[in-house]
């Protein structure tokens, strides 16, 4: 079999796999532009005969979408920034500083990644309730400001830099904070972008924790608002639900599209260092 034929078959297989993976997203977008009757007919229609945006207008009327979008954006951005600061500081300490039991402390830090989130939900909830933080932004933000995964990712990336760079900076009078924020951080943009995108998307897609700690629709995040569409009068229309899903996906898809190159570079840069 010639090389061109093998390449063509490879592209064909990749195209088929891509279509299978993207089909739910494409169908959600297509279905949100259909009428309820067109979406419910058999055999099912895959492309709207006359695209319409009325479903999106119905979603905007059914729930306080703008406020819930704002809540999700505020929580996701603050968590992202918090994780970048805490993970960068911790990764620098574990990667460049010398102190007793450093490796043991790092192992304990990584061990937190093996604790299921479900195991700490009740303690976190009791802490928030005991301090009167339920139905507030701090309740949505505080448990996620530090991350073991982010620390591990950035530490591995920092280890790819020669230690001579660090020692030369110290000899020239550069302190730890100055070296970190003026030299190391600018050189680590791919890893920081990867962690930032990951933290934002993970927070944006949260459902159970916001459902647990929020009580009013004005403090709920977008994922809770989209779920509440099932309780509205128009919930029997499948295009109505799909329109809400598409609205929730827009920021995530945009962020992935913009940062896909940084995600790949950041996740693979430190792969060869232990």
Question: Characteristics of this structure?
Answer:
MetI-like fold; mainly alpha; single chain; 274 residues; 14 helices
Question: What layout of secondary structure does this protein have?
Answer:
Layout: H1 3-32, H2 36-40, H3 54-62, H4 65-96, H5 102-111, H6 121-130, H7 137-141, H8 148-158, H9 163-171, H10 176-187, H11 189-204, H12 208-213, H13 222-227, H14 238-268
Helix pairs in contact: 1-14, 3-14, 4-8, 4-11, 11-14
Explain how this protein is built.
By secondary structure, the protein is an all-alpha fold. The chain has 2 domains: 52 residues, no CATH class; 214 residues, Orthogonal Bundle (MetI-like fold). It has 14 helices and no strands. Helix 11 packs antiparallel against helix 14. It is globular and about 70 Å long. The two termini are 41 Å apart.
Shape: globular
Distance between the termini: 41 Å
Tell me about the biggest sheet?
none
Return the CATH class of the largest domain: Mainly Alpha
Second rung of CATH, namely the architecture of the largest domain:
Orthogonal Bundle
Structural class: mainly alpha
Unreliably modeled segments: 270-274
- Calculate Rg over CA atoms: 23 Å
Fourth-level CATH superfamily of the largest domain:
MetI-like
Strand content: under 5%
How would you summarize this macromolecular structure in one to three sentences?
The chain is mainly alpha-helical and 274 residues long. The chain has helices at residues 3-32, 36-40, 54-62, 65-96, 102-111, 121-130, 137-141, 148-158, 163-171, 176-187, 189-204, 208-213, 222-227, 238-268.
